[in-house]
Amino acid sequence: MRTHELSTGALPLLAAGYLRGPRGVSRLVVGTDFSLRSEFALARALRLPLGQGGVFCVMHADPAPDGHDGPAGAVPGARCLRKAVASVCRRLRNRVDVDVHEELRQGDPVEATSTVANELRAELVVVGRPLVTYPVRELAEDSLVRRMVRRLGASVLVVVPHPVRPYARPLVAVDFSRESRRALELMMRLCPSSAPVDVLHVVDTREEETALRAAGAPTERWLLLRQERERAARAALGRFLAPYREAGRELEVRVRSGEPAEGILAEAAERGSDLLALAMSGSEALTPLTEAVLARAGCDVLVGRHAAPVS
């Protein structure tokens, strides 16, 4: 079914009929390098709801062998990939409507994943990320996860802990943009309909507060500014979420003030969120907020992109 791309920002972007119930993901790619984090990613992908007639693709990219480009360097990867795909087929043996694909590529993993995702028109790519170590550091420039988020045109689910159950306490950070709506709707497709969804907007008044302090304004002035902005944000969230509440979805409004990444991470920690979603524009190359959250989040992170129209 073709996605309806509506021009009115207050209306949902989903295909007609979605609000009657979740339909899962139709085309899914799981990247693996056979490490423990990849096993977590594969286990999580198998817990996600799959739509009727879906495609579940497991892929591995071997670096090109030094000095030659023959098949010898890909043999170990092929054997491990075959075992992983066989395990997926066993888990999905009752889903005869789901096609399980095996993709073995050579070359850079990010470029290979991008190619496979484009070929399959993937809605979601699932990859693993190592656990956060302390002191927390920013993602390295050559970090695989960082490059995946920047390069891929599909939404990306970055899996951190071992999955033990379906998502039960998701949190989505929104800025009222089209991409934010995409992230919210994709999250609702990945979570059980009974799971309450926390929807957060972080009000960033740091520049205005700094200007007021520099002008010698009393403390009450910038506190009033923050309160007014938070009140306006709650009203905007109410309008933003109205279509989903009318459909019976349980959504909780959360508003914080301060630096966005810090606010998002703090809210996730306080709520015990097991999935944190945020949006990114398809044309965005540098993603400081997204990368800050990815580097420090203790739960899975969903980076939602607005789906390109099918030609």
List the helices and strands and how they pair.
Layout: E1 25-31, H1 36-47, E2 50-62, H2 75-91, E3 99-106, H3 109-120, E4 124-128, H4 144-151, E5 155-159, E6 170-173, H5 178-190, E7 197-203, H6 206-214, H7 219-246, E8 251-257, H8 260-271, E9 275-279, H9 288-296, E10 300-304
Parallel strand pairs: 1-2, 1-4, 2-3, 4-5, 6-7, 6-9, 7-8, 9-10
Antiparallel strand pairs: 5-10
Helix pairs in contact: 3-4, 6-7, 8-9
H and E string: EHEHEHEHEEHEHHEHEHE
Average the pLDDT over all residues and give the rounded result: 83
How much helix, percentage-wise, in residues? Answer: 25-40%
Unreliable runs: 1-22, 66-74
At the fold tier of CATH, the topology name is: Rossmann fold
Biggest sheet record: 10 strands, mixed
Strand content: 15-25%
The tally of structural domains comes to 1
Structural commentary:
This protein starts with 24 loop residues before the first strand and ends in a 7-residue tail after the last strand. It has nine helices and ten strands. The N terminus is likely disordered. Helix content is 39%, strand content 21%. The radius of gyration is 21 Å and the shape is globular. By secondary structure, the protein is an alpha/beta fold. It has a single domain, classed as Rossmann fold (3-Layer(aba) Sandwich), CATH 3.40.50.
